[in-house]
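Suppose a classmate hands you a notebook page containing two proteins, each written out with its sequence and a corresponding row of structure tokens. How would you begin to make sense of it? This section walks through that situation. The first entry is reproduced here exactly as it would appear on such a page.
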Amino acid sequence: MIVSAGYFILYFLLLIVLLALLLLHRKTAPQPLTQQPRVSILIAARNEEHTILRCLQAISRLDYPQDRLEVLIGDDASTDATRAVVEAFIRDRPNFACLSIGQEVGHTRGKANVLAQLTDHTTTDFFLFTDADVAVPPQWVRAMLAQMQEGVGVVTGITSIAGDSLWARLQALDWLYVLGLMQVVSDLRLPVSTMGNNMLLRRQAYEAVGGFGGIPFSLTEDIAIFNAIIKKGWGFRNIYSRSVLALSTPAASISSFLHQRKRWMRGAMHLPLYMVVIFVLHSAYYPVLLPFFSYTSAGATLAVFGFKLLLQSLYLRVCLRRLGQTVPWWFYVVFELYLVVSSVLLIVYFFLPLRIVWKGRRY
């Protein structure tokens, strides 16, 4: 009883502090670009015939001179029509190129290997990374570059989920909530992590750590490269703004959802201790609440549940407002039910002795 009460006090204090920091934070307007440097956009693609056209069309609509963009797509041994779709789209676009990925470089495997080889073909000082199933907004390049100030090695945008189905909208809210927690910490200038599908690296910082080929292999190569660059003394910026809001496709099935989240949970082990504490406190809520219900009154349990729902909903509302979005009030309740089910499933699935399947490969 005492342990549970102590947990809830600590958990609610954390939520209150995070909410207060989010409300009190005042965004500083980025300096407008005084020049338009050439940048490279790098995309790893493996069996993406149904999604990559949407990605490439979004890049072609960027509010940035196309002759200042170098777009490199790495075909990672696709067995579907990915290569044909890409080549048809880039036929009349000389700044786009599709490269076949060869043998592994250094310690790399999978996506990290693709990105390592793509960077070897770049001719610019700035590398923008996104995924083949992601559509970036028109202001993406300008907004990301505006944060690449002197001494900054990594800039991270925000990614959510596209789609009108309930399943897609719940995943979108989940992404925005978790990234909102990370943003509050990064606003305090404490390093957290980056998002490999919405990331900008300075070439000098990338080469200082030997690139993807110079760091140990990780299923979450974005977290690994971020940590390596930060250890070298480079700065970082995280942006929680509609100008950099990229939209990914939702996990199509429960199985793909579980594999995706298990991979992320593996990567979370390499996050800073303060972020691990935040995520552990968050994920332990229901495992603590259920035993608490067995030796206390239903009224006390409902009060604890309601207070958490209130604070969480307020936090989400502020996050959505920063992106110019809203959801109906009942959606916050449905999202809580989503968290109950997904949290239990993920905790169980994480400890099952199963290998992670990602893009048809097992790790």
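The notebook's second entry, a different protein, reads as follows.
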Amino acid sequence: MGDPEADVADLERFRPELHRYCYRMLASVFDADDAVQDTIIRAWRGWDQLAEPSARRAWVHRIATHVCLDRLRSSGRRALPMDMSDPTSPAMVPSETAPMEGWVWPADMAGDPAAQAERRETVRLAFIAALQVLPPRQRAVLILRDVYSWPARETADAMGMTVAAANSALQRARATLDASRLRSEALRAGDATVDRELLDRYVAAFERQNIPALVALFHEDGSLSMPPFPMWVSGHRDLAEFQRATAHHCAGSRLVPLDLNGAPAFAQYVPAGERLQPWGIHALELRGGRIAHVHTFIDAALFGRFGLPARL
């Protein structure tokens, strides 16, 4: 290597794009963190052997693909609760959880300008869930071609396959997505602009636990889920029943705004003595000026990962 510092900087410039790629492959921000770090280490070991700088982007993505494929060999499909079962009715307080590695989890894209430039629907949680239906290699090809708009040759180089094989994998991936019929598919076409007044009303109603006002913000078929709890509820009657059943836990909560997966979100803190402690992340899906769905992710580790305080 001629200049180690310059080489490190050259390699590190790929980190944000690699993270978005690995997140779409693995559907977990924590798994993506580990996969990117593994990719960077492997790439650094062979960095001085790559004679053509223009080939580095495809090369590091080829390494990242192998890292992700290795991880996916021993894991099952991640999903959103609404794609795994029918809604619970009547609504009830959730008690049993499913393994954390079975769910699609959110990612913070707010501080990454390149992520903002990518098509908004390709970071939506419903799109991430749809990707998980695909076999891993088809998933990788579709991300490179349809999300990053890579040429067929560059994609084939990154995948270590022929152009014909890459094109065939892309066609099969598109066909599988078209036939998947996931319930969450309806959430992919969210509002292009965020209704800030709607969000203010959501925060006010939730923090005051004004259940009628809160439920009125949802579509008639609006819904709510709480990974890692597999249950979810749909419709005004069951939403209201669920909110009443959990009101004792949410009383006194505060919501802190976030931007996750191209959609508005809030971090919920609940009372714990004289302070408030992390509880869940609300990711809102908006459609037609109302709430279509709220994903409430119950994992305190997300707060630290997204740079949120451990206490309020």
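A careful reader of the second entry would note: The mean pLDDT is 90.
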